[in-house]
Amino acid sequence: MSSADVLHRLVGMTQALASPVEDLVILAEGNTSAAVGEGAFWVKASGCSMVGIQPSQFVLLDRDALCAAISGPTLNDGEARALLNGSRVDPECPEVPSTEALMHAWLLSLPGVGYVGHTHPTPLLGLLCVESARRWAGERLFPDEVVCCGPRSCFVDYVAPGFPLAVAIATAVTTFREDVGIVPKTLWLANHGLIALGATPEEVLSASRMTVKAARARVAALAAGEPVRALTAAEIDFIYRWPDEHFRQQRLFGR
User: Fold this and answer.
1) Contacts by residues 221-227 (CB-CB < 8 Å, ≥ 24 positions apart)
2) 232: exposed, middle or buried (C-beta count within 10 Å: 0-12, 13-18, 19+)?
3) What is the largest CA-CA distance in the chain?
4) Taking the CB of residue 120, how many other CB atoms lie within 10 A of it?
5) What angle do CA 191, 106, 13 make, to 5 degrees?
6) Phi and psi at residue 242, in whole multiples of 5°?
7) With contact defined as beta carbons under 8 Å apart, do 108 and 33 qualify?
8) What is the bridge-based pairing of β-strands 31-36 and 186-189?
9) HSE of 159 in the Cβ direction (CA atoms, 13 Å)?
10) Which of 171, 181, 154, 166 is nearest to 237 (CA)?
11) Which residue of 125, 171, 195, 236 is surrounded by the most CB atoms within 10 Å?
12) 148: helix, coil or strand?
């Protein structure tokens, strides 16, 4: 797929995530990205609203340079911004990349990840401000949450956005892969928001939307005042490995 085709799909995904009915972002919240070949990626420009975003509001960056920085010495804000601006494939591009481009670069280097959507869904954000959020990230309430969001979410403790967050995400996802054996579909960022990963825009959209539904379902269950019954590990594993659900995933995720 050409760089222009990838950008076209990324713009469509970003506009869909920004729809007011989704309750995922407002103002200039959130950012998105997509891989182009092996060494470059498109990412939303800094300060741009996802609502009605246009192709000119994305920046093409050198992915390898940014990934290497995450495993290197700690960068202060000025050094991180200089690195991001210097990683533009077109030095004459008038836009500057989102401060979260570092985390996007690293996430897009993971196997099977072609698109990344970072949003701040209101229902999930409320849960992410509660001490039980880490435990809830490891639970699933209903089958379609497993299908669209994976058997559990990767939880990331709160750190400042930018370089510190990119490092924290890399550390948390590496540990998750060692423990669970797969790349997570969703990351829950404490007191911050959601990251959805996918091979296609449809996969990112499905994971984002289902995360919001699951958050609303949990809020409703908690409000009932009774103990919340999450799916057991065996029930989650059955759904996750069920061939019928794999077929549904191919249709849902546009694979």
Assistant:
1) 221/141
2) exposed
3) 59
4) 18
5) 70
6) -70, 125
7) yes
8) unpaired
9) 16
10) 181
11) 195
12) helix
Residues whose CB is less than 8 angstroms from the CB of residue 148 and which lie 6 or more positions away in sequence, other chains included? 185, 206, 207, 209, 210, 211, 252
Please give the single-letter amino acid code of residue 233. A
Query: Torsion angle of alpha carbons 165, 14, 121, 151, nearest 10°?
Result: -70
Q: State the alpha helices, DSSP H only, in the chain.
A: 3-17, 63-70, 77-86, 101-107, 122-128, 133-137, 143-149, 163-180, 201-223, 233-241, 243-252
Q: Give pLDDT tens digits for 130-161.
A: 999 999 999 999 999 999 999 999 999 999 99
User: CB-based burial of residue 74 (10 Å sphere; 0-12 exposed, 13-18 middle, 19+ buried)?
Assistant: exposed
According to DSSP, residue 175 is labeled H
80, 99 Cβ separation under 8 angstroms: yes
* CA distances to 1, 42, 115, 182 from 250, in Å: 19, 25, 16, 18
pLDDT at 48 over 80: yes
User: Which residue type does 212 have?
Assistant: V
Residue with tokens 């591009």: 93
Class of domain 3-252: alpha beta
